[in-house]
User: Which sequence fits this backbone?
């Protein structure tokens, strides 16, 4: 076997060894292994999830050979779950792969406790009724759940978890935590020891901008009654002041100071969960993150500055840890039940913590948001995506009445179209949007799709689902909130804020 | 009552290809014929058999295409296996294109995939003209630029400078980095080409050498010092090879020493590799999403079964999920997809003189140019056999070599020197001979 570190190198650079360890501990259950489910699992097996269990009661038919890469001609007539499972196993022998030849709907009805053994369930191609039931079970058992569905040139992805918390949200663009407007004594002391008017030009152009901004902010405060620049005019004036201090035009550190001066003006966020720290030692701030961006500087200044930020960050963490242990003791829990590493990571990421909550499917369906839906339906960028969202629910109602999806079979298309139209009108009525209609073109299109599961659409839906699964399991990055309504016609897909 | 369809592998695709709709492309002509033509006649080239290429081949094979070819110069490495799902551990070291083609043909019966284990520049231009659509699964700007120039070189303009539809060579292009990616459609003459929007790919930021030499501040500075400065000092003449583990280890050890000297934390072997090889993190899911989006667009272009992406899709899954479609516009003065660079010549100018002129022409700036005229080699710099065969043309007037045609299009391939950077490139040249009847002022006004 290859050294796993090498095999996973390109992803370890994204979620690190901690993220990888979480993946390798996870057990995933897949319901239905058509192309949508198979493609979702393919991406997770390649990444090295701990185990997969495939639930599908169907046999491989001719049509499956044309849309699913995990079956081949020799699979015809065999259990689809078995064939897909054996091919997926080939992709990564570190993954424990098994299958159960049974229809998910039957399992949901007869053996709900089955699902409690998993970290996460990926439910593909389920209709509304089964989605609601499964969601209830998974919420009860505290199992994460994600729905994925491909349908012609549309589809959806929807996460359902009571609450998901993220410590390492790793945002792309985030304001550096430099405390320029509120330096602690060590940082202030460091800045004071450096002379901005130093004569040596080399020394002058290697003063880090953090020092320049801390000192210039102080200077500004003394001449402005203790306040920082706040109006646009004052901010401009402050930048002029910085410019005037440049000893030569090529001083990158002063240019950086001017560019970074907004960091001085930006308000700092407050996280409620850290109330005590903020109210006491924090002096109104969350624990310091401790890293600084690269900036023009001499090596000595930079390394020393970095040490000051790191020392403060470490000190903040130790105080926070102490408080956590005390609180745990007070509420009668083992003071060491939260590991050091978790508290440290929490402390460093205090400004980036995220909480995602998801409504239950039942609640989303029983208590629709007509105002949101109406807004989407009348917005050109959203109308197709939200139209598909409504039609995906309409086809389930249709199927419950007529035992097949509109356009599923050859012939009878006109009748199916008019029936779907009627179904859509009554659904819109139930959603509190009785005045609105869907276009004929879109309803025709939905019937044309005839519940087809196209491979390329399934690969997109499955790709998105697997990416969200990784975020949920590693507890890194921020998973999507809302329902992703896929629109492959012009790719104006939308995340609908309905859950 | 509706009937069940007879068993067919095309069960799901048939819904899209056999039934009429209103949200479709202007050329859509649904029916069995369309499906069969797609299988029989549509030829798609996949450029790159890596993370995107593997997905593209699988997706195309399951989207009604039966005639595929794939070109890639790389061999399989262990670090590919977390996403390039057509490869197994025992395939490490084998050519990607060959293994990928074989695996897809094994799984999807009836599909034919021809692999090409070579550089994209090794194929002559006509090779690329043989395909209806080119799908790009690349990770380099230079390679995209090259294929784009080749595809755009086929584009012809009529006498009113309108692009001729039958000469358009559509491309779909994908790219990913971590949780982010893009998919785009390029129809030369209609949408912007890769070169029209080259600003979307800003050049990689390099550390100033004085920072590396004098004021290193972080681990990457120490690594680049060892890689770019110290290596040459110690190994005079021996080139650094990023794929040689001994070389990499040497750079790592030197970087550690330098970091210790300056009290800088964070130098690891993994980071050393990342910095030196400029490794872009890559995962299966993003590649799957982007490749499938490209495949859908390929299917739409070939069949008209739905509207097309117009013309650039971005996907970002870092914070929640964001997708966005942007309609970029053509650069009307684009040297690559425009009507061609206009060059006026005297009828007496020899091919050799012409090649020399291309080095100086500010719009061309090409050295070592090889020249083709309607697929015919006028002069080839390489291989030596061809060079020898075409050498005698150098002293002949270009006008004669072009069969005394007053104005026409030539293709030049060679090294383009732009902004102090050399790259392989292709330029379309619109040559007009002075003082020949039939050349009017109108033609000249078109410009390049």
Assistant:
């Amino acid at each position: 076997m290859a050294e796993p570190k090498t095999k996973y190198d390109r992803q370890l650079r994204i979620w690190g060894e901690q993220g990888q360890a979480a993946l390798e501990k996870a057990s995933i259950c897949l319901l239905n292994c058509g192309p949508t489910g198979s493609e979702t699992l393919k991406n997770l097996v390649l990444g090295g999830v701990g185990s997969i269990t495939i639930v599908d009661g169907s046999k491989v038919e001719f049509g499956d050979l044309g849309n699913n890469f995990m079956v081949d001609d020799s699979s015809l007539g065999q259990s689809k779950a078995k064939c897909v499972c054996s091919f997926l196993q080939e992709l990564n022998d570190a993954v424990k792969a098994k299958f159960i030849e049974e229809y998910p709907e039957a399992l949901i009805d007869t053996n709900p406790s089955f699902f409690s053994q998993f970290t996460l369930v990926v439910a593909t191609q389920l209709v509304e009724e089964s989605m609601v039931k499964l969601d209830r079970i998974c919420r009860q058992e505290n199992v994460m759940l994600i729905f994925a569905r491909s349908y012609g040139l549309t589809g959806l992805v929807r996460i359902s978890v009571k609450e998901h918390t993220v410590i390492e949200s790793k945002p792309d663009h985030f304001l550096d935590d430099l405390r320029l407007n509120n330096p602690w004594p060590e940082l202030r002391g460091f800045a004071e020891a450096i002379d901005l008017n130093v004569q040596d030009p080399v020394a002058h152009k290697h003063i880090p901008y953090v020092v320049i901004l801390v000192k210039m902010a102080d200077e500004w405060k003394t001449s402005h009654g203790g306040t920082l620049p706040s109006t646009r005019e004052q901010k401009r004036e402050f930048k002029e002041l910085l410019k005037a201090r440049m000893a030569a035009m090529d001083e990158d550190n002063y240019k950086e100071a001017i560019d970074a001066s907004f960091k001085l003006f930006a308000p700092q966020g407050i996280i409620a969960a850290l109330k005590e720290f903020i109210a006491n030692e924090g002096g109104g701030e969350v624990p310091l993150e401790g890293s600084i961006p690269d900036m023009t500087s001499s090596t000595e200044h930079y390394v020393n500055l970095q040490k000051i930020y790191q020392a403060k960050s470490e000190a903040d963490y130790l105080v926070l840890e102490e408080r956590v242990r005390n609180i745990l003791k007070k509420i009668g829990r083992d003071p060491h039940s939260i590991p050091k590493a978790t508290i440290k990571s929490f402390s460093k990421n205090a400004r980036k913590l995220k909480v995602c909550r998801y409504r239950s499917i039942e609640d989303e369906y029983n208590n629709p948001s007509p105002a949101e839906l109406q807004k989407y339906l009348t917005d050109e960028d959203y109308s197709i995506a939200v139209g598909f969202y409504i039609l995906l629910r309409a086809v389930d109602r249709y199927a419950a009445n007529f035992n097949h999806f509109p356009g599923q079979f050859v012939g009878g298309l006109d009748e199916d179209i008019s029936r779907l139209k009627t179904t859509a009108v009554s659904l819109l009525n139930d959603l509190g949007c009785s005045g609105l209609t869907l276009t004929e073109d879109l309803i025709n299109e939905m019937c044309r799709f005839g519940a087809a599961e196209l491979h390329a659409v399934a690969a997109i839906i499955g790709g998105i689902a697997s990416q969200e699964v990784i975020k949920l399991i590693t507890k890194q990055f921020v998973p999507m909130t809302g329902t992703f309504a896929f629109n492959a016609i012009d790719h104006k897909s939308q995340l609908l804020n309905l859950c | 009552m509706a009937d069940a369809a007879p068993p067919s592998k095309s069960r799901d695709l048939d819904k899209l290809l056999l039934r009429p709709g209103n949200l479709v492309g202007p050329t859509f002509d649904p029916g069995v014929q369309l499906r069969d033509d797609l299988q029989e006649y549509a030829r798609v080239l996949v450029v790159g058999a890596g993370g995107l290429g593997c997905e593209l081949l699988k997706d195309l094979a399951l989207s009604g295409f039966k005639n595929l070819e794939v070109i890639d110069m790389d061999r399989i490495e262990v670090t590919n296996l977390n996403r390039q799902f057509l490869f197994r551990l025992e395939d490490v070291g084998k050519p990607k294109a060959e293994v990928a083609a074989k695996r897809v043909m094994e799984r999807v019966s009836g599909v034919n995939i021809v692999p090409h284990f070579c550089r994209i520049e090794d194929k002559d231009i006509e090779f690329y003209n043989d395909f209806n659509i080119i799908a790009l699964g690349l990770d380099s700007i230079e390679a995209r630029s090259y294929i784009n120039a080749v595809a755009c070189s086929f584009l012809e303009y009529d006498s009113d400078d309108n692009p001729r539809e039958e000469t358009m060579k559509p491309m779909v292009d994908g790219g990913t980095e971590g949780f982010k990616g893009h998919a785009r459609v390029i129809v030369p003459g209609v949408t912007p080409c890769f070169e029209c929007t080259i600003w979307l790919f800003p050049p990689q930021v390099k550390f100033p050498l004085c920072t590396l030499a004098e004021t290193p501040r972080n681990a990457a500075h120490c690594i680049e010092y060892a890689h770019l400065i110290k290596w040459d000092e110690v190994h005079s003449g021996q080139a650094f090879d990023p794929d040689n583990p001994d070389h990499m280890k040497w750079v790592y050890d030197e970087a550690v020493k330098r970091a210790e000297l300056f009290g800088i934390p964070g130098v690891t072997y993994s980071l050393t590799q990342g910095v030196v090889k400029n490794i872009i993190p890559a995962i299966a899911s993003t590649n799957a999403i982007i490749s499938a989006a490209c495949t859908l667009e390929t299917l739409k272009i070939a069949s008209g079964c739905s509207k097309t992406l117009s013309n650039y899709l971005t996907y970002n899954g870092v914070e929640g999920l964001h997708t966005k479609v942007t309609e970029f516009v053509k650069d009307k003065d684009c040297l690559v997809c425009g009507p061609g660079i206009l060059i006026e010549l005297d009828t007496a100018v020899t091919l050799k003189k012409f090649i020399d002129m291309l080095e100086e022409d500010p719009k061309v700036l090409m050295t070592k140019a090889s020249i083709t005229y309607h697929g015919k080699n006028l002069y080839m710099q390489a291989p030596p056999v061809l060079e020898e065969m075409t050498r005698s043309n150098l002293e002949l007037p270009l006008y004669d070599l072009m069969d005394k045609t007053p104005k026409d299009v030539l293709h030049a391939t060679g090294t383009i020197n732009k902004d102090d950077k050399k790259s392989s490139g292709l330029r379309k040249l619109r040559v007009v001979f002075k003082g020949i009847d039939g050349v009017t002022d109108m033609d000249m006004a078109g410009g390049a």
In short: Chain B has a mean pLDDT of 91.
